[in-house]
Amino acid sequence: MEIASNGHHKIDFDFKRICVKLIFAAALYTALGLYLYLPYLDRLTDRLVLLASIVAALGCFVISTRWIGSFAAELLTGAVYGFCPFVLGFSAYHSLAMLPAAVMPWLFCPAVFYNARKRSSRLQNVIGIALCLLPFAVMAAFFTFLSSQRLFPVPVAFGFDAGSIAGLVAPLTLKPHTFITGLYHVPLAMSLCGLMIYIRSRRYKIMLIVAPALVLAIGQPIFETPPVVWGLVVMLFASVLAGLGTQSLALAGKNDSRWILLCILIICAVAALTLLLSQQLGFIYAQTARIHSLVVVLLGIVFLLAESGLRLRSFRWSLLIAAVTADLLLGARFIIDTLL
Hints:
This protein is an all-alpha fold and 340 residues long. 71% of the residues lie in helices and 0% in strands. It has helices at 15-37, 44-64, 71-82, 85-89, 99-113, 122-148, 162-166, 185-201, 207-218, 227-251, 257-281, 283-308, 313-339.
């Protein structure tokens, strides 16, 4: 798309400004977490789950600043990851189960920001690769240690099944002790737009991290690490794409119309699929089809604005932020009530 076409933006290294943004983001995620978890905070384990979601969201927010230039989109990115169905799925297990989701974004921070202000060299590339492997090594060491202590926060053999894959189009089908490999309805469409930006910019290096994580997530356990843990890397990437896609839709011009139209067609297909599934699987899929239909309307409005050359950026931002926020609040509330 016209904006963020190179996949990067100028990094803000103003320490005071960074601190203000972090404090505001932490306060926002804390308020969001309290709203979602307030009925369950009488138990210590649920307080730990709340803390883990906040830390996870804040870590994803920090990472998103490497590629996203809008503060509003960065805030949405963190919230989408920290309170997404996949991350919330860990809360149904041991209190330690949420720890990997909380620390995963922070473990990637050294790799994400290492080359932000430097020209690449052979040595720096080697160091960068090592930093990219750091989260994988830490997770493997963590679960190997827990296994040696006979602690299993998540069953070692726990992987993805057909129900998990169905979560890509129907995130509200999450049940206790299952995992959904997807985002909420509106962030899913935003993530799709963000993916198109990466494809168009031809910056594929990040896929060298995401692809192995995806393979590990659907494979057999290694180093006593449950395969679902590696899915956190994929969800982290998808959340950043969602923020990037939101920003892009808010700023898209006429040259971006065909990409928005492609997103509309894909979400239309998703809505049709969930509508067909609702004939056999019931109310949740019917409700999901309705929400996807509303997402199509949202994208259609942005498409018409972009095609007509009307910027109306304040209106677009208001529309997109409201849609993502409402979807996240209602979806996360439903899932947390189901799990806890």
